[in-house]
Write a structure and sequence with these properties.
This protein is an all-alpha fold. The chain has 3 helices and no strands. It has one domain.
Length: 94
């Protein structure tokens, strides 16, 4: 069982780098399209992911550095998938 934990600890940083490159590639492909800077929840997702990653990393073996980085990455990936609603759509400005 210890070998599984050692493999997981060795592989997680490489998985995080791969996911980060995939998120950057997807965002750069969408960057060519015209979009508003605040149309998704990427920043909020990173903040919440960092907090959750810190808590999970500290509770599962005091590996907070890896928890912070993976939490930010997962939060960014989830946050960019969620679109913000247009608040001014359908409302007349006075």
């Amino acid at each position: 069982m210890e070998a599984v934990f050692e493999f997981t600890r060795a592989a997680l940083p490489w998985v995080a780098v791969g996911l980060l490159l995939a998120v950057f590639a997807a965002r750069s492909a969408r960057k060519n399209q015209k979009q508003d800077p605040g149309e998704n929840y990427g920043t909020e997702g990173m903040c919440l992911g960092m907090c959750m990653g810190t808590a999970i990393g500290a509770s599962l073996g005091n590996n907070t550095g890896l928890g912070i980085s993976l939490g930010m990455l997962i939060g960014l990936a989830i946050g960019t998938c969620i679109k913000k609603e247009d608040r001014h759509n359908g409302h007349d400005e006075q």
